[in-house]
Design a protein that fits this description.
This protein is an alpha/beta fold. The protein is 44% helix and 20% strand. It folds into 4 domains: 93 residues, no CATH class; 43 residues; 121 residues, 2-Layer Sandwich (Nucleotidyltransferase, domain 5); 125 residues. It is built from 16 helices and 10 strands.
């Protein structure tokens, strides 16, 4: 085959022989093209003097059903400008163990398949595929434009088992993840504000759960920002601390009536699910359950009324709705409900501020679910920096 054709594959080299290592592997030996002048990788000038030669074996993209290995004599040139320097090989950058063609193929595959599957498909080690993808993300992932940030969302997610967490910060307007860091303390999230720099003054609102570390650090770092407590997290906390507690207490009072006790005890998801999402037969069961139990009816009704605080027309209306809700909760005589209302009162400002800043609270939970999928696809990440890059890449944001 003409040398110019081989230059389309391995510029500056020609294949001299090949051998089948096994039914799936092929080794091709290359030699420098005598008609090509080697070029110094340091200064880019042509150089005829060869200092020494050593052979390298690198992986090439598959050929049909074969995994291809190349045997390449790599020359060090005696460059008058740079001294002994490796020759430039455009299709084999640096000390890489894979060719540029294989690297590009792996980069396309990891956008479609988990790393382990890509590694099995191309016959590379998991760490090699991960390293290729990590370099791609570091190279191609754009730096967020901090000057356009006005409203933020902050949330935490489980990083590993054993109560290890990370914090994600996203733009509420574009839904772009702008920062991810390990931990959920004030010290852990402070690097984000250091990265934000002077742009901290332009932040208007930050949505979060009732995490005191987030709250205190935002108030300390962003003088013009308003904290908005996430409706989803508050209502979920109400479900755990009030509805579950009341349901269990009511079930315990029905020890002598096993049938009724089983109905109450097994009604957790029926009580927590939104009424609009219930099937007709579930709605009937819920109605019968509430009709038979006054305490469950009270906490269920107050759960729906609590949600309305985030949809008030203005802060005055929100405060009035809160006072009405708090009066009913404190006067209910239900210990779990009274305790929750008193614990929630110090967070009132962050709840009523939602009347001014309509942050889409469902986005936070949607992001967390997507992060869990990313983690499952990789069977867990051993490199948190790489994991955080994958999260940022998964949420590039919408164009405003």
């Amino acid at each position: 085959m003409n040398a110019s054709v081989w230059n389309l594959f391995w510029k500056g080299f020609l294949p001299t022989s090949h051998e089948c290592l096994d039914d799936l592997s092929l080794r091709i030996r290359l030699e420098p093209d005598p008609h090509q002048i080697p070029v110094c990788s340091g200064c880019g000038h042509a150089c005829f003097l060869v200092h020494d030669v050593h052979h390298r074996r690198v992986r090439e993209a598959p050929l049909l059903t074969y995994r291809v290995e190349l045997d390449i004599p790599v020359r060090r040139l005696r460059c008058p400008t740079c001294g002994p320097t490796r020759e430039r090989i455009d299709w084999l950058p640096g000390r890489s163990g894979v060719t540029e063609t294989l690297r590009q193929w792996v980069e396309r595959l990891v956008n479609l398949l988990p790393i382990r599957h890509v590694a099995d498909l191309v016959g590379l080690h998991w760490h090699t595929v991960k390293a290729i993808d990590k370099r791609r993300l570091q190279r191609d992932l754009p730096e967020p434009d901090r000057t356009r940030l006005r409203r933020l969302m902050m949330d935490e997610f489980a990083l590993h088992k054993g109560h290890r967490y990370a914090t994600v910060v996203a733009c509420a307007d574009t839904q772009q993840v702008v920062w991810v860091g390990e931990g959920r303390s004030r010290e852990a999230i402070r690097p984000f504000f250091e990265w934000l720099g002077d742009a901290r003054k332009q932040i208007e609102a930050v949505a979060m759960d009732m995490n005191s570390a987030f709250d205190l650090e935002v108030k300390d770092q962003c003088p013009n920002a308003v904290v908005v407590y996430d409706r989803f997290h508050v209502v979920a906390k109400y479900g755990r601390e009030v509805m579950d507690r009341v349901r269990v207490d009511q079930a315990n009072q029905l020890r002598d009536d096993k049938v009724a006790r089983k109905v109450v005890k097994g009604s957790r998801w029926l009580l927590l699910r939104n009424a609009d999402n219930l099937k007709p037969e579930q709605a009937v069961k819920l109605e019968e359950l509430l009709a038979a139990n006054a305490s469950l009816t009270t906490v269920y009704v107050l759960k729906d009324q609590l949600k309305t605080l985030w949809f008030a027309d203005d802060e005055t209306t929100a405060r009035s709705a809160w006072q009405e809700w708090a009066d009913m909760a404190l006067g209910s005589g239900i210990d779990a409900l009274v305790h929750f209302a008193r614990k929630l009162e110090p967070y009132l400002e962050g709840i009523v501020s939602s009347a001014r800043h309509r942050l889409n609270t469902s986005v936070l939970e949607g992001m967390n679910n997507r992060i869990k999928v990313i983690k499952r696809m990789a069977y867990g990440y051993r490199d948190t920096a790489y994991f955080f890059l994958k999260i940022r890449a998964a949420f590039p944001g919408k164009v405003r």
